[in-house]
């Protein structure tokens, strides 16, 4: 897995990736439809140019294919905090260790390079798959922001907030590294 700075030339590959499993149709997510991918990339790049986010394309190592997106957002430099979010992966990339590896890279950069004291993750209350994945990273649930946002269909979103603190990072890093090694070991044994 590699993380590349998001670019417009990734639009076609990412449109194909998001089409796997019709990811954008899940009511509790805000994932762009294939035909909206170019506009979504332009939106994220404009926010990046304004210094508000840092977006990446997630590329699978085994075939070099772009399989998703992830972003640093809610960056508050003076408080040394940021959020990792707006993440989605193609159906074929889910459960393969790609998310674990991407988060390990993003967390290492946040804590070791940027000197963050806390990294947040947020998801919709009803996105149980995302909540499980965030908890599996080693993040702890901080709370629920009730009626936090209005969804594209008009429903109110309760947002679950998780975080990892700098003091927890050494243990989280070790656990994620071991989890990734086990995932890779299972993949090698299956080959």
TrEMBL record:
Keywords: Transferase. GO terms for molecular function: acyltransferase activity, transferring groups other than amino-acyl groups. Coiled coil: none annotated. Pfam families: Acetyltransf_3. The keyword Coiled coil does not apply. PANTHER family: BLL6696 PROTEIN, N-ACETYLTRANSFERASE DOMAIN-CONTAINING PROTEIN. This is GNAT family N-acetyltransferase. It comes from Georgenia ruanii.
């Amino acid at each position: 897995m590699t993380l590349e700075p998001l670019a417009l030339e990734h639009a076609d590959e990412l449109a194909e990736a998001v089409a796997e499993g019709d990811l954008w149709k899940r009511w509790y997510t805000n994932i762009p439809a294939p035909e909206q991918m170019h506009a979504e990339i332009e939106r994220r790049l404009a926010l990046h140019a304004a210094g508000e986010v840092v977006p990446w394309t997630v590329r699978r190592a085994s075939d070099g294919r772009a399989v998703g997106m992830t972003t640093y957002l809610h960056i508050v430099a003076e408080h040394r905090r940021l959020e990792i979010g707006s993440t989605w992966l193609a159906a074929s990339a889910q459960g393969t260790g790609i998310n674990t590896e991407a988060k390990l890279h993003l967390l290492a950069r946040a804590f070791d390079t940027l000197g963050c004291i806390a990294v947040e993750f947020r998801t919709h209350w009803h996105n149980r798959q995302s909540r499980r994945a965030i908890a599996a990273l080693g993040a702890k649930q901080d709370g629920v922001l009730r009626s936090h946002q209005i969804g594209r269909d008009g429903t109110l979103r309760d947002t679950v907030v998780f975080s990892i603190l700098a003091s927890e990072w050494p243990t989280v890093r070790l656990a994620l590294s071991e989890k990734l090694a086990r995932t890779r070991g299972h993949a090698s044994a299956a080959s």
